[in-house]
Amino acid sequence: MKSCFVIMPIKQKQEEFQHFLSIYKLFYKEPVESCGYHVQRGDDLSDAGSITKDIVTAIAQSDLVIADLTDLNPNVFYELGVRHTLRRYGTILTLDEERSPHIPFNLANHRVKKYRSELAYLSRFREELIRAVNAIQQGAHEGADNPVHEFLPRLPIDMVQAQLAPEDSLVTDNAKLSAQLRLYEARFGQLTALAKSEETPEMLFEAMEKDIKEGRHGAKVFEDITAAFTSKDVGEFVTATRKLMYVSRFPPTVNQILEISRMASVRDLAPVSRVVIDIGLRFFPSNEKLLVARFASGLQSQDQQARLQAIEDASEYVGLVFEGESWRATSDFADLPQLKKQILYYLLDALRAERRFTDALKLTKLMYASMPHSSQVMRNYARALEDVNDIGAALPMFRSSILAKDVDDTSVSWYAATLSNNARHVDAVEGYLLACVMDPNDGHYFAAVAHCLTMTISAGMRQLSPPRTSPLDISKQLVLEFVRAALSCENAAAAQDRIRTAISRAELSLEGLDRSQGLGRTAREQLARSNYDTFASGLTRSDVTPEGESTH
Fold this sequence. Notes:
Blueprint: E1 2-7, H1 14-33, E2 37-41, H2 53-61, E3 64-68, H3 74-86, E4 91-96, E5 112-115, H4 122-137, H5 147-151, H6 159-162, H7 167-188, H8 201-213, H9 218-230, H10 234-247, H11 254-266, H12 270-283, H13 288-299, H14 304-317, E6 320-323, E7 326-329, H15 338-353, H16 357-370, H17 375-387, H18 391-402, H19 409-421, H20 425-438, H21 443-458, H22 476-488, H23 496-506, H24 521-535
Parallel strand pairs: 1-2, 1-3, 3-4, 4-5
Antiparallel strand pairs: 6-7
C-alpha cells in the first residue's frame, strides 16, 4: 500500500489541538485513504512537535506528502524544506485561507490548495484533494513541484533512491556529459539547459541540437522578439517570448529577461512582463536585478490585491517590520545594497497609491535617519510631508534635497512642482530652469518653464505668497523660446498638454513651427543657463541670497 505523510501544525493547547486533529481526519485522512493510501501524521510516530528519525524517514520515503501551511508554523516549514530537498514531486500544499490569507512569498508561484474549516466547504475541498492525489498516482505532473528542484534541475528525482544507484555508472555518465558540454560551449557559448525530469542526458543533448538547427537558439529568438516589438506585432512578440522562456533549451541572459519585461510593459502587456520576470527567477533565483524587477512589478500593479501582497513581501525583503503604529528597520538602510534601496522607493510609491500617507511618512523618517545626506531620501521625505499637508516642513526639506552633493534633476523638478502648486510661480521658474540646465534633453522641464512664466504674467509679475517680483520683464517672446525648446526635445509629445496650456495662456501663434525650427541641445542649454543665472536665488543656490545678491 502506498503511504502518505501529513505535515501540519500540531498545537499544544487542547482547543487548537482538537481543531487541527479534526482537519487531519476529515480533510486529509479520510479522502486520501479512499485513494488507497496509508495516512499518518507526526504524532502518530512520535511526541507532538519533536523531529525524530521516524518523522524524517516518513518525509523522505512517503509516496505522497501533504503540507498544511496554515499559521505559518516553523516546524511545518522545516519538514517541508526536508521534503522539497529530497523529492522532486509528490508534495501537495494546502492552506486555511481564513486563518492565513496570504501565501508565503517563497511559495507564491506554486499551487496551494486553499480550504476553509467550515463543514460547508469540506465536500468541495475533498474532491479537489482526491483529484490531486489521483493525478500524482497517474504520474500527471510537469517537472518539479517545488523551488529546490526547479532551480536545481539536475538533482536526482528521489535523493534516497539515488544513494542506491551504481556509483561507477554515475561517474561515467558525468564524464561523458562534461566532455560533450564543453564541445557545445566552445561552439555556442555558455549554456544553461533546463531538462524535464523524465529526460535522459542523451535526450537532452539531442534536443539541444534540434533547437539549434530549428532556430530556437536563445540569441536568435531574442532577435525575433526585438523585431516583433519594433514592428508592434503583439501576437508575434508573445509567441517569440513564450518560445524563448519555455521552449528553447538556451535560457536568456538576465539583461535579455529585463529587456523583454520592459518591452512587454511598453506594449501594455503587464501580465507577460510579470511572467517573464518570474520565469527568469527560476533560471537565476538569486539575481538581485530580477528580484527588484519582480517587486517593482507587484508594487506598481493596477491590481490592488497584488499591490498589497507586494507591499508585505517587499517590506520583509528590505528588513522592515510594522509594529503597532510604526515601522521598525531590522538593519541600517545605509548598509543595504543599492538594488534593495531601490525597492524602498517602489514601496513608497505603492503606499502612496494606497493613500497610506502616514505610513509613507513614517517610513521616510526612518530612511532619513539612516541616510540624512541623500538627495533622493530627502525629496521623498519632503513629498511625504506634503502628502500630509505639512507644507511648512516640506519646502525646507525639498530645498535641502537640491543642495545635497548627490542632487539630480528629479529632486529639483519635484521642488519646482511643489512651488508651482503653491502659487510661487517665479520661484518655480527658477527651479525648473535649474532642471533644464541639469538635463537639457527633457522637454517636460522646458514646457514647465513656459507654463510658469505664463502663470507669472497672469499674476501681474508677482507670486501670491510670499511675494517675489520677477527679476526681468517676461515677454511672450521668452515664453515662445521655451516652447520651441520643449518642442525640440525627443520627448516633446509627452509634454504636449503643458505646452498647449502655455501657448493658449500667452496667446501665442505657432503656425508653421515644427521641430526642424527648434533648438539644438547646446542652444537649449545656453537658453536655460542664461535665464537661470538671472533668476537664481537662495532657493536653489547656497551662495546666493533670495534677493539675488552674492553672500560672499
